[in-house]
Amino acid sequence: MSKKVFCLVLLTGFNSTLFSQNSQRYTTSQFAVVQTHTNAIYTIAPQLNSPYAGESQITKVNLSMHIFQPQGDTVQKRPMIVCFHGGGFMSGKKEHDDMIEFSKIFARYGYVTATAQYRLGMNALSNTSAERAVYRAIQDSRALLRYLRQNAASQKISPEHIYILGSSAGAFIALHNIVMNKESERPSGTFAINKFPPTLDNGPDLGTLDAIGGFRTNGSQANGIVALWGAVKHTDLVEINDSKIPMLLVHGTKDSIVPFGLGSPFQLPTLAATYGSQLIDQKLISLNYAHETYFVDGVGHEFYGVLNGMWSPKPNQYWDTVVNKVRDFLFNIHKPTASFSYSINKAQVAFTNTSAKGVKWLWEFGDGETSTLQNPVHTYKQSGTYAVSLTAYSEVLSADTKKENIAVIVTDINSELLPSTTELFQNYPNPFNPETTIGYKVQAASQVSLKVYDVLGNEVATLVNEFKQPGNYQVTFNARHLERSQEIPSGVYFYRLRANQFNATRKFVLMK
Fold first, then answer.
1. pLDDT of 75 above 50
2. Does the structural domain 4-17+337-412 have CATH classification 2.60.40.10?
3. Which of 70, 246, 402, 476 has its Cα between 20 and 30 A from that of 436?
């Protein structure tokens, strides 16, 4: 059978970022029950018996974490968040209220989470002791991340999506886990020191950044960090080489414990000045380093309702805001970006998937058909406007959806696609300016008239006035290119189709 096919596909999209099935994972609570594995040991490390007495007396201790997982989850690779508590490297514990609450909330979202112990022990009267305390905690964080990557399969986590959230001292850990990544960046106080004051005790060499723990071929750095009221030793540590790792900085501008700008922690003259979130932000901007901030004017340390990590007496008005900031920041790290283009070959539309960070796909073509191919080719059986959507899924099954409207008008003579009725379609787009497309189909050979009228019934344009064979047709109306008059004003207009006994009118709106 010979046939002649003409296909016009008008792809007019609204480029919205939507979410489809399972797409609320990681942004809203998905699991009612959270399973907890308490005191999971990740390494053994030498702990100071008494930092004020010196470093000659140590005890090897197990460093552990509480792990939280969504019960009933079947996803095999999930992102993980490790929380490090505050306490000035002198006190604190992994059971701090805020760290436990963060862990539970994000486990319900679909993450694996943990709140981790690290070595404490700092003499606040000695800056050298402070340098050594922070460095030991950095070593512990690196040991923990290597341990997690080694055990990623059993924990069902993705080694490429392990994040650190730290509060106060924990934020020092998070920041330095990223910016202190070369042995040349070690503070001088971390090497062997003889009789450093005020204890007049010897300080042994603390070793390399990865001296604690095993699995040293695994990566020691996080894939993203959240630093709640933290600081760094110096912004010189922040380099362009660190820029692949996203950061979220949260801080109050009146923080007297960890200064927002330049200042000594606790306002103690014995401790060297550190560089707070304000100065880190300025350095990141100068490097064109993509990052996010949430700075609150006029508030102090731990401003979401805790005192040294414990509710005082409960979360305040800032808590939900911080949680939501963290949620959106982390989700944007691992979510894909859905995108596609297309090409036309007669009645077939070939889709090209241009998504970023996607590994699985779901196409919905708007006619009830779907595909999981990366680059499908779809054949439409009849004219119409179809909402085509592509949902891209990342390795951890975070999702993003792109939707576009496709107006498909197929003219197929002497084929099985001949229309069984005469019909006038709604134009697309509507409202329009200055151009829109009108589709119609004719059941039997007839004289066809398609005209445009204003609200008073005056004829504005004749689009079709000729004999037509059975088939599907489309015509373009351009409000600027009229034979009978100049441009017509904005407003409501009507178009009428007449063919044999068929007579139908539809309304459309010109909006300038």
1. yes
2. yes
3. 402
Burial class (CB in 10 A: 0-12, 13-18, 19+), 423: middle
* pLDDT tens sequence across 325-341: 999 999 999 999 999 99
Write out the H or E segment, with its range, that includes residue 392.
strand 384-393
Residue 313 CB contacts under 8 Å (≥ 6 apart), including other chains: none
Which residues partner with 343 through β-bridges? 350
pTM above 0.90, yes or no: no
User: Is the bond into 376 cis (omega within 30 degrees of 0)?
Assistant: no
Domains 4-17+337-412 and 30-334 share a fold: no
For the stretch 309-336, what's the b/e string if a residue is b when 16 or more beta carbons lie within 10 angstroms of its beta carbon?
A: bebeeebeebbeebbebbbebbbebbbb
Taking only the tens place, the pLDDT of each residue in 118-141 is: 999 999 989 999 999 999 999 999
Which residues contact residue 414 at a Cβ distance below 8 angstroms, ignoring those fewer than 6 apart? 1, 2, 3, 4
> Can you give the C-alpha Rg of the chain in angstroms?
32
Domain 418-510 matching CATH 2.60.40.2550: the answer reads yes
Nearest to 110 by CA among 68, 145, 170: 68
Whether 422 contacts 25, CB under 8 Å: no
Q: What is the structure's pLDDT at 344?
A: 67
Nearest to 444 by CA among 416, 463, 471, 423: 471
SS3 149: helix
**pLDDT at residue number 7:** 40
Pair type for strands 292-296 and 306-307: unpaired
